[in-house]
Amino acid sequence: MLFNSCDNKTSYTNFNDYPTPVNENLWIQYTPSSTLFKIWSPTAQEVILRLYKSGNSSKALSQHQLLSGNNGIWQKEINGNLDGVYYTYQVKIKGAWLAETPGIYAQAVGVNGKRAMILDIKTTNPKNWELDQGPKLNHPNEAIIYEMHLRDLTILAQSGVTNRGTYTGATEIGTKNPQNRSTGLDHIKELGVTHVHLLPTFDHYSIDESQLDKPQYNWGYDPNNYNVPEGSFSTDPYRGEVRIAEFKQMVKNFHDQNIGVIMDVVYNHTGKTTTSNFNLEVPDYYYRQWQDGTYADAAACGNETASERAMMRKFMLASIKFWIKEYHIDGFRFDLMGIHDIETMNQIAQEARKINPNIIIYGEGWTAKESPLPYEQRALKKHMQQLPHIAAFNDDLRDALKGSVFDDKSLGFVNGALNTEESIKFGIVGAISHPQINYSKVNYSDAPYTLAPWQSINYVSCHDNHTLFDKLKISRPKAGMDELIAMDKLANAIVLTSQGTPFLHAGSEMLRTKKGAHNSYNLPDSINQLDWDRKQEFEDVFEYYKNLIQLRKAHPAFAMKNANEVRDHLKFHQIGHQLVSFTLENNANGDYWNTILVVYNASAKKINYKLDGIWQQAVSGSTFDLKGSQIIKGTIDIPAMSMYIAFKQ
Asked: Which tens digits make up the pLDDT trace of 485-543?
């Protein structure tokens, strides 16, 4: 393919010939006396900067020609204090003017993200922001992650939240439902998780921010401006500074409760293609193409970005570092991480850890469709051993627990499937190499793929596909409520007592339902919202989850630091149809319990289990006694459909 710049100065035979000023600062540089504007567009003939009074509708205050400099950079310094002024760039390519764009490095925008805003960004900092920090982790699998959509958390009228569906509402204190049960942030704190994972909260296209009085819903996986908070969660999307200040205050409020904030990031594709902000600056450069010039689409959303190209890699690195430094973000979940190249992901992890050693980075280790990026370069689940500071979702365990997410009727360990035990064991050890696992019988992986157990994000449900409760109900239509509750409890009991990093879908602790919807990305609040009435209705489920989390936090044996520790201290014992048992031995990871016995009984009948020596009972059915008041020896009855734990001091 031949690419020509149209200034007749330089011609490029391919994207690799483009000048790539990777060390150049491309953020706008504001001072009270002047602002420096920069844009990288090596094929542009002209670039115009327009200044506006508002983020929408108003006519331009002034127009300025940017000057062409070295390495494809256009820039101009404008004198005066421009704080609060909005702006756009417009690029001329091949004799034609493209549409106006806020630029890919916009840090603040007006309504619907069409115009960028010049902002003295430090004025958006909450009080004592310089002292703010998230939770500290000795190693990543100490985290217990709670995945939620901001709107879902508080939009229900009975949530007791004043500013429902907003950044502000997400961290209101003292909110209760009509049954006087805590909701929102207080609920999350009560549950005991360490981190919230927010579905996309950067600026996305789906929601019309000028029509927030009309019902609208979307998960937000259609990026518009990557470095700006989404306006529909703010109390005023028209004023660019408001969403920034409210987002920061939300982060600080979570941090004040010792809860970290993880952002769901979607650098793998953009919400639009030909008119995306990337293409309005440097047409086609930021995207992969097939040999015939058509856009590749491994994201199944119309395009895929080219992380291996120097300026896309630079953009991703700059963006991640910006969110950590400016917003104090504690982690990132990469959507369809397999679309990105290994080198870029490793650079991101290294740079992020320099700023915050406690950062958590994980992603989906797959693609949605085929990609031109060579297989061996992809940041896939299979390649996690080449990504030593990054984790990936363990779909082997997910589908082993409850059945395939792509087949409503399929079953897993907790709802009646046969021969899932090796996949359960694979999840228990965090996808490492362990001598007691037969990898030929693991769901999708015929070999271990992690270097350390924390690299396995262990989960049974997330925002995608059915909720856990809905999947169990659909796959076992004749099961009674007591059976469904037992299955649900056992599924996340396995997640929370395994060596991987545990990940919970918000609301699973109160049997969240989406009324059977499989893909709720644009369905109304009535489907997606957390129903806080269920907290009282299924109070025993909530208490069980809360106790599980307390158990994990109290006992470091469930979160060993490395693979050698797991191999040395974790031994599997009786394995049979719908039965998996193991011990954590010799004060694993410094645990004060010397030996811990864990038994998962997924059968519909109690099991008589033979013990050697004298033990203390910690968990039986839904009863938790972490002091181990009851002494047991000989044989014990493991209740049907449950987890059992005993220990020796």
From this structure: 999 999 999 999 999 999 999 999 999 999 999 999 999 999 999 999 999 999 999 99
- Give residue 418's region: left, alpha or beta (phi > 0; psi -120 to 50): beta
SS3 of 143, please? coil
Distances (CA, A) of 190 to 141, 174, 341, 552: 20, 12, 39, 15
- Helix locations, 268-407, DSSP H: 310-327, 342-355, 395-402
- Residue carrying the six token digits 């049960």: 181
Hey, how many other C-beta atoms are within 10 angstroms of the C-beta on 68? 17
Q: State both tokens at 378.
A: 């992809």
Residue with tokens 């009228």: 157
Residue 480 main-chain phi, psi, to 5 deg = -80, 170
- Annotated catalytic residue: which of 222, 304, 335, 509? 335
* Count of residues making up the chain: 649
Comparison of pLDDT for 57 and 353, the residue scoring more: 353
**What is the secondary structure of 605-639 as a DSSP string?**
S-EEEEEEEEEEEEEETTEE-TT--EEEEEEEEEP
The answer to whether the beta carbons of residues 474 and 516 sit under 8 Å apart is yes
**In this structure, is the dihedral angle defined by the CA atoms of residues 103, 104, 106 and 110, taken in order, positive or negative?**
positive
Q: What element of type H or E holds 35?
A: strand 34-40
Check if the beta carbon of residue 61 is closer than 8 Å to that of residue 85: yes
Burial class (CB in 10 A: 0-12, 13-18, 19+), 357: exposed
Verify whether residue 364 is a known catalytic residue.
yes
The answer, yes or no, to whether residue 306 has pLDDT greater than 80, is: yes
Where does the pLDDT of residue 57 fall: very low under 50, low under 70, confident under 90, or very high at 90 and above? confident
Counting runs of H as helices and runs of E as strands, what totals does the chain give?
14, 28
Give the predicted TM-score (pTM) of the model: 0.97
d(CA 41, CA 47): 9
For the CA atoms of the chain, what is the radius of gyration?
26
Tell me the average pLDDT across 295-301: 98
* Residue found under tokens 């190499």: 433
Question: 83 an active-site residue?
Answer: no
pLDDT per position as a tens digit, 19-48:
999 999 999 999 999 999 999 999 999 999
Catalytic residue among 142, 364, 395, 531: 364
